Each structure stands twice: as C-alpha cells, then as structure tokens.
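Researcher: We're teaching a course module on how sequence relates to structure. For the next exercise, students receive a sequence and then see the predicted structure as tokens, so they can try to spot secondary structure elements on their own. Here is the exercise chain.
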Amino acid sequence: MPFVSGIDTAMSRLLSGLLKALDSDEREAVSGDLLEARESPSASALQVLGLILKRQLDPWAGWRPWLLLITVALPLAVALSQATREFAGWSAIYSWMLINNTDAALLRSAGFWSGVRENSWKIGEFALVLFCCSWACGRLIAQLSRKAHMSMAFLFVLTSLFVLIAGIPSHARAILVHSNDRYFPNGAVFANAFYRDWFPLIVYAITVLVPLLLGFAHAEPAVRRPKALRVFFYCSTALVAVGLVEQPWLLMEMWSWQMIPVRFLTLPSLLPVASIGPACLLVIDVGRRSIRLRSNRSTRWTDTNWSQSPER
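Model: And here is the predicted structure for the students to work with:
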C-alpha cells in the first residue's frame, strides 16, 4: 500500500536521523543490533529514541550538568533572549515606519531612501551580531555539557522562549516613563498583532534559534581542534558573555536598583566587537566543513569509478 510505504520511508529517515544523535561507536553497535532484530522502522525508531532519552538523562544524576545549567546556560539564555526582545522592539518600529507608512510621495523622496539604507544597515548589523553570539553560546554549552548537550539545548531554548514571550519586569521603565505599559510610547506600532506577537518570534528564530542549534549540532570534541583555535574560541565566548551582561537594558536595570553608578550607563556596547571572534570562527568552521565535504565526495567518486572500471 502506498500509504504504508510512505510511513515506512518517513520512519526510516527518522531512524537515520536519530542514529546520528548517538556516538559513532554506539551508533555502529545499535545499527548492528537493529539489523539483527529485523524489526519495523517505527519500532526501531522508538527503541533508538528511548536510548537517546536515557543517554541524555543519565548525566543529570551528577552535579556537573546542574552547575552548568545554573551558572552558564540559564544566564546566557536570559541575556540573549532579552537582547533579542529589545532588538525586535526597535527593529519593529523601524519596519513599521518603512513598510506600513510608505506612499508614492515618500518613494520619490531621496531622504526616504537614505533612511531606508541607514535603518536597514542598523537592523542587519545587529541581527548578524546576535547570530554570531548565539552560535558561540550554542557551541560553548554543547562542548561543556558533552553527553547532556541535547537536553541542555532543550532547556536553553525553553528558557529563552519563555523570556522572549513573557519578558522581564522592568523596574527602570517604571521609574523613567512612569508607566507599566511596555509598549509606551509606541502603542501604534504594537497595536498591530504582527509586530506585537509574530515579529519577535521571527526575529528570535532567525537570530537565535537557528544559529544556536547550529552551534549545538556542529560542536566537536575539543581534542579535534587545534589548541590555538580552542583558546581563541573560549576567549571570544567570554567576551560575548561580557557583552551580553553589559547591554544597555541590563545596565539601566542595575542602575535603577542603585547597584551601579550612573556613569556606567554611558559605556559603549561591547557586543558588536565581541561578535567578531565568533564570526571568524564560524567562517573557519564553514570552510573546514566545505573542504571535508568536497574531499568525501571526491573519495566516493574515485571509489565508484574504480569499482566500475573493467578489470585489466
């Protein structure tokens, strides 16, 4: 039956993807056991899924994953998500001004296009900064959490999504604008459901979720990387963490609680500078993977031609 055949094909692909979540040695052993058992793809997928869940939950019996979660993962998730929330807020205002309030007269204005270029550059620049910082955070947590990286990624994404949707209560805003309305004074923008509800999720998916998962998925054991790159990576990630802590919204909150003096509010943002290191590492990583992929394709092509060549 075509329907049953389609289900088996989908389950086979799911099984192949689940097997990739296991270590290479364990993957080969599990694949051999599944071949000997000769069970259906759906039953095999359930067994592998159960094994993955067990492997991800076992490390949480110790103290290391909990320490990493409390001291690294959750603070980075909150800071990164709140930075994305702030970015989505002001970029939504610019987008609303450029998209929802454009007419034929504005399109003929040179000043309008100058504003489009300026605002588009600001939005694109900070989006790239968040992308690189999210990738660095994902790779850092994946390398530190090791065997618990999938469960740690789930908790990281869950926390960041909660902060993105719920937000953090602002004590500074109540002091400065004397209003609990988080959309004040841009209520006209966020009266639109798209900019209020969907735009932050789209920004989060592009600038945080995708690079974060890439960082988790592409993390390699530290022994496979040159020592210089390891040192550069950890230094760059430490600078990213400092940049996330030193954001204007967080400094403003700390000032409102009289935790820092007012002169700290004028500190320049380190986040754009901090993203340079992860950007370089991301380019290096993409280049290495491209070279490796081409090498593997070339090897397979050579082996195929050799096996198909007539015997002499």
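Model: If you want an answer key for the exercise: The chain is about 80% helix and 0% strand. Confidence is low (pLDDT under 50) at residues 1-5.
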